[in-house]
Amino acid sequence: MLNFARPRSHPNPRVTKPIAMGGMDYADPKRKGNFVGKVLLAAALTSLCIIMIKQSPTLNSPSPFSLREPGVTHVLVTGGAGYIGSHAALRLLKDNYRVTIVDNLSRGNLGAVRVLQNLFPEPGRLQFIYADLGDAKSVNKIFLENKFDAVMHFAAVAYVGESTMDPLKYYHNITSNTLLVLESMAKHDVKTLIYSSTCATYGEPEVMPITEETKQNPINPYGKAKKMAEEIILDFSRNSDMAVMILRYFNVIGSDPEGRLGEAPRPELREQGRISGACFDAARGIIPGLKVRGTDYKTTDGTCVRDYIDVTDLVDAHVKALEKAQSGKVGIYNVGTGKGSSVKEFVDACKKATGVNIKVDFLERRPGDYAEVYSDPSKINGELNWTAKHTDPLESLQVAWRWQKCHHDGYGVSNVIY
C-alpha cells in the first residue's frame, strides 16, 4: 500500500518567561544564556538530521513501482480486490510479475488484498491503491506516479439483473471508466491492455456454440456497456500501436485450489449474484433456499444453459493473453469450456458438492436473461495454446465449497480504509 507520510512538526524552542521585579520585567541572565545554548544545540541537531535524511538510501530511492526495470513486468490490475481480479493478481505474483491493485472496494474485499500482501511481502512485489476509476484526476495520478507495462482491466459491476434496474450505473462504471483508463494508458505510454469482457455482449444468438464471429447483440445494460467499452478500445487501437487482448468469458465458478482466495460477495447483493454463491448461501443456511428464475426456456429441462469456466482457468487465459500480446494488434477470444450445463444440472452438482439437499424455488424469468449460451473455444486453443483444464462443474464447486466452509464471514476484514 502506498504510504503518504504526514510531515512532522518540530517543537518550538522553549521560551523562558521573564521574572517580574518592582513592576518591571527583567530577563534572568542565566536563563538567557541557557536559552541561547539550547537554540544553538537545536540548530546543530536539525542540521545533522537534514544531512542524515539526504544520505538515507531508503528516503532517497524512488519507489520500485515508479520505475521500469529490465526483466520486470509491472501489471496494473484494476478491480484486483474482487473475485476474479484477486485470483489474477495471485497468479501474476506467483509468476514473478510486479503488481499494483487499484480498487474502490465497492464490490471487492480488502481481505483478499491482505492475503496477497501476506503471501508476497517483499518490497516491490505488490502495492494496493484505494481509488475510484471514475475519478479522472485519481486515474491520471496513478499512472503519473507508477510505471506500468500492462493493464488487466477487471474493474466493473457485473450483475445482469442489477443492470436492468440501474442501467446508468453500469454505463458509468463500465463504459466511462474504461475510457478514462484508456486515456491514461495513452497519455503515459502504457502499451498493453488485457480487457475483461463478457459473453453477454452476444446476447442470445440463434446458433450455438458462440464463436468470436457471432454477431454481438446484447439484450441487457451490462452486455451493452461492455460492448460499448469494446468499441471504444477497438476504435482507439486502429491508430495506435497498443497491444490489445479482449477476453469474452462465460460463467465463472471455483476458487484457488490451495484455499487462499474465494468468492465473498456483498450480503446486500446476494439476490443479484452468481448462482454458485447463492447455492453456497443456501447450503449454509444464510438464505432459506435457492431461487431458480425461469423454467420455460427452450432447453432440455426448461432452465437456462450456461458455460461454466473455472476461475483458475480464466486467469490462466489472461496470463497467456499477456504473454502473446503484440504491438499494434488486437486479439479477441472467447474463454469457456465449450459445453453447457443447465441450471438444474448445476444445482444438482452444488447439492453433491455441499452434501446439502438445498431447497429450490422455481420462479418466473429474470429480466435480461437468455436461454442458452456456451462457447466455441477453438480460436483461443489454437492461437494462445489455452484450453480449460477444469470442465466438470462439480469439481470446481467442491474446491469453492472448501473455502466457503472455512470462511463463514468471508475474509472477515472490514473494507474501511483509515
From TrEMBL:
Family: Belongs to the NAD(P)-dependent epimerase/dehydratase family.
PANTHER family linked: UDP-ARABINOSE 4-EPIMERASE 1 (PTHR43725:SF53), UDP-GLUCOSE 4-EPIMERASE (PTHR43725)
SUPFAM superfamilies: NAD(P)-binding Rossmann-fold domains
Pfam families: Epimerase (PF01370)
Superkingdom of source: Eukaryota
Species assigned in the record: Lupinus angustifolius
Record GO biological process: galactose metabolic process
Keyword NAD in annotation: yes
NCBIfam families noted in UniProt: galE (TIGR01179)
Required cofactor names: NAD(+)
Residue ranges of every copy of the NAD-dependent epimerase/dehydratase domain listed in the record: 75-336
Record's protein name: NAD-dependent epimerase/dehydratase domain-containing protein
Keyword vocabulary terms for this entry: Carbohydrate metabolism, Isomerase, NAD
NAD is among the record's keywords: yes
Gene Ontology molecular function, alphabetical: UDP-glucose 4-epimerase activity
